[in-house]
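Changelog-adjacent note: as of this version, every example in the card shows the full chain rather than a window. The one below runs 217 residues end to end.
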Amino acid sequence: MSEIVRLPLKTSDGYPLVHKFYRQEGESHGLLVTFPGEKYGVDGPLLYYLSELMWAYGWDTLALTYGFQLTMEPFSADVIPGLLQECRSAVEEVMTQRTYPRLGLAGKSLGAGVVAYLCQSEASLAESRAVFFTPALGTPLFDPIIVEIHHPSYIAVGTQDRFYDPEILDTLRASRHFELTVIEGADHSMDVLGDIENSMKAVKKIVVEVVDFLQKD
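Full-length structure tokens:
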């Protein structure tokens, strides 16, 4: 059985902020937190199906919405400090409600950068596993942080993603270990243009791999 929990949280501007928090009625096997992209919400296929499967495996799931998305503001550097504080507050609130034996953080694009930042800055997340869907490779928002953090990590990217760069990936892997999946022909949304069958196969492959990654001993 599930329990939908409303969290007493607000945006950085003081508006009510509703996240999707599903809590197992009994003991939980872990907590998965999903962080959307700028235009790729938590109901996008990668994040939605990952949450659904982890829920089926007995995990609580917290799907975040950013305040700037709720108020329909355009994304800019000005919203980042408030966005990070909103995410930090939401994770802290949930983790005060019960103790979790496992923690998984999964971010898409912008959300991947948020995951990297939280792993770097929050001691309470030291034991978490980090999942980065189509991160902004080659930018200061991602590369220096992924090299610095020691969390077990998984990266998925497509060869048609504007951020895809095999040389950057090779450089990062020379600095630290992480699991990597590269989908041939997939773009920043992990879609293979004009090919719904391979687009669906890509999502399935990645989600199955991440479920296994999050549950490893």
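Structural remarks: The domain at 2-214 is CATH 3.40.50.1820 (Rossmann fold).
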